[in-house]
Write a structure and sequence with these properties.
The complex is a heterotrimer of chains A (about 325), B (about 260) and C (about 325).
Chain A lengths: L5 E12 L2 E13 L4 E5 L6 H9 L7 E8 L2 E2 L5 H7 L4 E4 L3 H4 L6 H12 L4 H14 L5 H4 L9 H12 L6 E5 L7 H18 L2 E6 L2 H7 L2 E6 L2 E7 H6 L4 H8 L48 E3 L2 E3 L2 H7 L7
Parallel strand pairs in A: 3-8, 3-9, 6-7, 7-8
Antiparallel strand pairs in A: 1-2, 1-4, 4-5, 9-10, 10-12, 11-12
Helix pairs in contact in A: 4-5, 4-7, 5-7, 7-8
Chain B lengths: L1 H14 L1 H4 L31 H37 L1 H16 L2 H12 L3 H28 L2 H8 L4 H13 L1 H23 L11 H10 L6 H27 L2 H5 L1
Helix pairs in contact in B: 1-3, 1-11, 3-4, 3-6, 3-8, 3-9, 3-11, 4-6, 5-6, 6-8, 6-9, 7-8, 9-10, 9-11, 10-11
Chain C lengths: L4 E14 L3 E15 L4 E5 L6 H8 L7 E6 L2 E2 L5 H10 E4 L13 H11 L5 H14 L16 H13 L5 E5 L7 H18 L2 E6 L2 H7 L2 E6 L2 E7 H6 L4 H9 L49 E2 L5 E2 L13
The chains are: A alpha/beta (about 325), B mainly alpha (about 260), C alpha/beta (about 325).
Chain lengths: ~325, ~260, ~325
Amino acid sequence: MTGPVLTVQDLRVSFATPQGLVSAVDGVSLSVGAGEIVGLVGESGCGKSTLANALLGLLPSGAQVSGTALLDGGQLLGLEEGRLGRLRGDRISMVFQDPATSLDPTFSVGEQVAETIRAHRRVSRRDARAQAVRLLSEVGIPDAARRYGDAPHRFSGGMRQRIVIAAALANQPAVLIADEPTTALDVTIQAQILSLIAGLCRDQGTAVLLITHDLGVVAQICDQVGVMYAGQLVEEAPVHRLFADPQHPYTRALLGALPTGDTMPGGLTVIPGQVPDLSGPLPGCRFLDRCPQARDECPTRPEPVTVGETRVACWDVSARLVPERAPS
Amino acid sequence: MTGAVILGVLLLVALLAPLIAPHDPEAVDARRILSGPDSSHLFGSDALGRDVLSRVMYALRISLLVATSSVLLATVVAVPLGAVAGYVGGLVDSLISRPLDMLLVLPALLLAITLIAIVGPGSTVAALAIALIYLPILARVMRGSTLGVAHLGYVEGAGARGAGHLRVLAGHVVPNAIGPVLVQVSILAGFALQIEAALSFLGLGTQPPTPSLGLMLSDGRDVLVQAPWVEVYPGLTLALAVLGFVLVGDGLRARFDPSGVLR
Amino acid sequence: MSPLLQVEGLVKTFAVPAGLVGRRSVSAVAGVSLHLERAEVLGLVGESGSGKTTLGRCVLGMSPVDEGTITFDGTEVTALRGRRRAEFRRRVQPVFQDPYASLDPRWRVGRSIREALDAYRIGTAANRNQRVLELLDRVGLAPSYAERLPRQLSGGQRQRVGVAAALASGPDLIVADEPVSALDVSVQAQVLNLFADLQRDLGVAVLFIAHDLAVVEHLSQRVAVMYLGRIAEVGTTRDIFLNPSHPYTRALIAAIPHPDPEHRTDVVPLSGEIPSPLDPPTGCRFHPRCPLVTDTCHSVQPQLEPLTTSHRAACLVTAPSVPAQL
């Protein structure tokens, strides 16, 4: 196997606000290989969407970004808009939550897919149209040739998301970043769209970074998962390990908060307190105030340690590892 | 902020005109016919030798009074009408909105002139005419913003919490829906000054010898070349007052920005 | 004893514009019957367009019904007026989805909770303030929250204030429409625990409307599944989740993304999308998407047929009516 297609190292994003400098993403590292689906999961405000927008160069101009993000070995961060524009939609594509705003209401859906192709490839109008029709039918638009000229509002939310996916995958990108792609959809439609994304990306060898708040979605289609809390990546593991043996106290609390038929009503895990104000000085572990396992070391930042295939940044986990590493 | 300062100063000048005006605004002085600005007559004198500065001060009284009373009258009538139309909907909405829409399609100035033709000219009639022009505009704005809040949880829930329709309207709907109306009111008050001036200019508003900005503009037009001060100072004052209202409207708009209210 | 709430043959239609001047009617709820016992949580699930929200609004008395009856605690309530209607509305309270829209942004929290106490004249003016503090405590908020404005609260705190406001009038039934779908998982857990406490400690019944089946399975004793304005299946939570009968219920359950990578659903459980209620399919409304469809399904509308004493489904194939059709 070749190395990862997308490698992110120590990514930091902060915004200047009237309340001070808000550190929205704080030293996140991850990588995605070809044909692999990596989930990035966390609650609102944890920085997962900011991270995605940083990779795509879609942050507002006041954002301060540092770190590296390599796409096929080339640096993405700090790339000038013109070169980034040539990459976006070609080598790196995105699918967002709301399919209604991802499509231009004044152009037909077919033209929008064909336009994506023609923006990056020297193809005739006719060929682009033929390719767009083929893509639309691949993503499951019935009677694609006839519906090529229909405006977006003539399609349901699920169908619109299929069209967005067709446009995103039109140029066979190396990386697809999907930010809550099924959150606005009904559960049976969600199942269809997830299966579509997973199927197409595995076939084309596209590396997928899937951003979601839904641990169920992660469990269903991801290979590898990163858990974010308040801008930091607290745990990263193969999906089976994360659900079977979560290490970080936050991951465990999050899994315990999920309602199931087996938990008694009233018995869901509640995380006390609130997410910290990200404009304050936060030198240590950001989960500290809410953590049942908090220790004396926690006000300084924990270095990630490896437990089996899991990487976790937690002083409590590190402390339990020490006896195994006998002093030499 | 700037708008509020401009309006505050103009209002103060208008209110204190009898105390601070250097001359009697209606006093004719044959020796000073069309004489230019000097130390005793800062804005010069007009064709009858009257002091332009004093006349501007008194004219501001009438103009601001007509402008504010007209928008106030329109608001007082429009807010309940628009709120009820938007909140109740259905037939009640049609009964309120259709007649107002008909009022809206008539050309504004024609409407005012027709009313004056029936009742006769004067500042009170001018104020009524302006209120009539503004009523459908403000009622529509109120109806629209009421529709925006009527389906929200705290309005729908209030019914289940036992609040009667009047209580819901007064307690939840009007306070939360009136923001856009206030923005509109402020901007329309600025234009009311202009309409009042236009009506007076045409001889349909304030009647001479009472000074009014419109009348002064009308007088000044005849002597524009030999004595521009007769035209320019009332014109500048009018522009400044309109600017003040529009700036205040912009400030209110920023404050009542829907996203700003919610977060 | 009669059930707390009994809905029979409920129909609610809306007029929608069609073409340039025309209007046509759409049945959002097309003949629904269900009941709810005292102190019971009934989960009402279905996808958008299933009519579950409209059904909830009819039960709350917020939308007039076109056909059918709603009996609350032995009294038919759709035709009530005046005082008796006010008394019915006092006993059935809403909790809404959007915690940002459910509280008046200009009212302090205490005033929002007091609103029902004042309007229904519950207690004296002095002990109403005391009651507000008790209600805040009930939903796990400190007394100081009474003085706060909604914008100073997080989404989860707002939703808890919404529950306190609903509890103020001492209701027997709370109709909660997607009360946790706008909340993060950890905050959602707090609000779900709160609903469980209300049922256990106060004996309040809850009509819990949600699209998230995991949430409904966790909280409800019984579950009703709606599809395109009709009830497809109703039963105890065990009936529905362990032994689903209707093909739609089965698909819905199969589509839940289980937070368990060892149980992946590799087949897409249901193709196609919910049809427009403007033009509902003939016969069984689910037949165009149904994997078990037969010829009869195109023309015959299935009724809810009992499978066990607690479990009923409306499917010609999996729940045929007892007297043979032939």
